[in-house]
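FAQ: What does a ligand-bound record look like?

Like this one, built around zinc ion:
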Amino acid sequence: MILKIKELVTLKCQDIKPLKAQYPYFLPLMPLGYRAGDIESMSSYLCRQSEQQMELTHPFSRRLLSRYVLPENLPRCLKFPATGLKACNGFGVMSRRFIDAINTAAVGIFDAKYLTYTPFQPLNDPSARGLQRQHLAWCSDCWREDVAQESTPYVRLYWLCQQTKICVHHSSRLSEFCPACGEIQHQFSAFPRQWVCDRCGHNLHEYDFEHIAENYTNEEAWASNSIYRLIERINQTQTEPRPDSVKRTIDRLLLTLKISSVEFADHLNVAPKMINNIVSGKRRPYFPAFMDLCYRLDIPPDHFVFDEDILTEKELWKKNDKPVFGASSNLTDQQKRRISLALKSALQSQPNPPIRVSHFARKHEISYSALFFNFSNEYSELRRRWLKWQRENRRLHSTERLKYITEAVFSMARNGIYPSDRKLRDLGYVIPSDLRRRDVILLLRALQAIYSNLKS
Ligand SMILES: [Zn+2]
Ligand SMILES: [Zn+2]
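The answer part, i.e. the structure of the complex:
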């Protein structure tokens, strides 16, 4: 149908004001897949809530937090960038705030903790690296089934783990890119319909791909199924791994097999230091290393963590090559290609001053550590150039900065304006970060004192 805009009657615009006092802002929706392996993720739940209330996700989430979380537990700034929001599905501060808000708002009809990776905390080191994916992944078949059952297509928590590569129900590889425009999708985008592409608006599950049979390895299938079973077990029993679960199981294995931790590590071809750190209780395991250990021992992680009587035969152990976790980067191939090209052109262009690593990282939405991790040579080269430039120019640069500020203060004084920090900043004479420099502060205070003395 073609709309002929000119023929339409002009409608009167009217502001619609929601009655804030009456608006519930939280509906008693149960999480989809609750108490099962297909439980939905926190971001998906928040998206469904905000969609029901016809609001965008981020304003809704901000309101939810400010209404249901105690002021002392709130962040100082409630503006969060979409890329960092995947943390709401993890086990850090942000997920704790959302769990707190939802549990208060839902008055205990369910526990929002199970919508996040919070129960996985004892299985991963505090940095939470190696657990969550950077972006969204989904199974189009599952979403089509959701639609057929007249339910909202929702994001399953187990899809968001880096180790999950395939859907356990359809044995097909999870999708990560929009089939129409190829764009990656945020886990917690501003638009609440997560099955719609952020960039081009296509349905992410619309196209039928040819099923490429078994385009995954045995290890990937094993890991995906294991994550699913672990989440299922945690949700069905509503229990979490204990802080020392991994240590206790390894202790028991060492005792029954009557071998030392070094021999144990040697048999499995893993680093003895890793086993020692866990056995001595010094460190929590790194999640990919924990999964790799379970794979080598041929014990599914849910049994490893929860079953007190699980044993293993040395004959069943898989003696793979020594694991290298650096290879399991959470950047997709497409991102790597993009960043590698950008790095190449950044290094070739040789601007003066050189590009700073932090500026590059922010511009390309990659973390500092991921840059170091994936492109260590280019990282060191960028850093070397910046440090060299800084060494040569620091003195010159700071003298010039002070000269410029002094001139600015004099010109303001001539016009009878008090040279306050704020005024200097607002007039563009000094950038905010320079106002925190000790030399700038000392100079300004001295000049301001002179100005005040002259006036009085
Ligand atoms: Zn599926
Ligand atoms: Zn798209």
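Follow-up question: can I read anything off the structure? Yes, for example: The chain has three domains: 20-207+215-235, 241-327, 333-455.
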